[in-house]
């Protein structure tokens, strides 16, 4: 959809993935009079991180605010199908709460248990399991083979249909008045340190005093057109699906080994897996390489789950992490040097589950409402100050090779 040049909006959101669509939904819900446009380069979402994610919602973080973000996501997902029905169309998101199991070596136990205590104090259903308890719950696992001393199990963690959730937010945002435009934003319009709108590949200009960067892995390219340098890199993340000869007699949780290797079962006893490596490509590369599976993932999977030694590689795919190289955490709020330019960027692999809380928070900032959840710790001022958030060593394996 191409609009006339100089079309004026109250808010322009660049990027119509999970961040852009949740923000559009909560903005138009909070103030139905707002004229909101979401500009997305590809409304099929073929290369969007939202739709290429292996999908996970977890409560297990070492930073309190990240835990609280997930708690809100859990509530949203639990009631999503009822609350997000629109025009008699009820979304089906396939929400499965099969848990997340993080496994630890001896040197990580102290930090793991400190995080566990914080999570439990916030009311999270997370428990510590010994190697014997792990095997009792999942007999195929062999924690002793890797010298593991235990793990934390989050019973409410799980996965869902990312595309269905995205479409649910998009449908509701549109029903509430948001306009979706398929076009590629090529430049931000800046006048005297204030945002003035955007220019697009089609030649159109869209004017607004508020522009939100929800461009995901493309956020740095967009910000750079306004002279803003974000510490966010697009990093290729590869996933693989295999069919093991021996099937588990129960669904397996998302299981994360100390190396950062992770896997879970999918429909039909299939197993999905992935792992970040130091040589992961920075850039917009969507190719996948089965040698990664053969050389790195299969041996590690077979060592921890010997029954999975015999399997068939079914398929693979690649998507992008938007890696915040400063600290691996979200960048949320108004850029201090440009009035009206807001950021919702740098989620480093956990953006999908953070979308609901982030969308609500951005809507509160823009409308001047008191935030329901204080996420000011993620303000972009820390980028200018060079002061990373201390998330801690736990649960950061997925971005450790990219965070400087």
Helix content, binned percent = 25-40%
Biggest sheet: strands side by side, in what order?
A: 5-6-4-13-14-15-12-16
CATH class placement of the largest domain: Alpha Beta
CATH topology-level fold name of the largest domain: FAD/NAD(P)-binding domain
Main sheet, how many strands, which sense, barrel?
8 strands, mixed
Count of domains:
2
| Oligomeric category | single chain
Low-confidence stretches: 393-404
Number of helices: 10
The fraction of residues in strands falls at 15-25%
> Any idea what the shape is?
globular
The arrangement of helices and strands along the chain is EEHEHHEHEHEHEEEEEHEEEEHEEEHH
Structural class by SSE content: alpha/beta
Number of strands: 18
CATH architecture of the largest domain: 3-Layer(bba) Sandwich
Mean pLDDT: 94
Radius of gyration: 21 Å
Any idea what the CATH superfamily of the largest domain is called? FAD/NAD(P)-binding domain
Characteristics of this structure?
disordered C terminus; single chain; 8-stranded mixed β-sheet; 6-stranded mixed β-sheet; FAD/NAD(P)-binding domain; 28% helix; D-Amino Acid Oxidase, Chain A, domain 2; alpha/beta; 2 domains; 404 residues
What is shown here, in short?
By secondary structure, this protein is of the alpha/beta class. It has 10 helices and 18 strands. The strands form 3 sheets. The chain has an 8-stranded mixed beta sheet with strand order 5-6-4-13-14-15-12-16, sandwiched between helices. It has a 6-stranded mixed beta sheet with strand order 7-3-2-11-18-17. Strands 1-10-9-8 form a 4-stranded mixed beta sheet, with no helix packed on it.
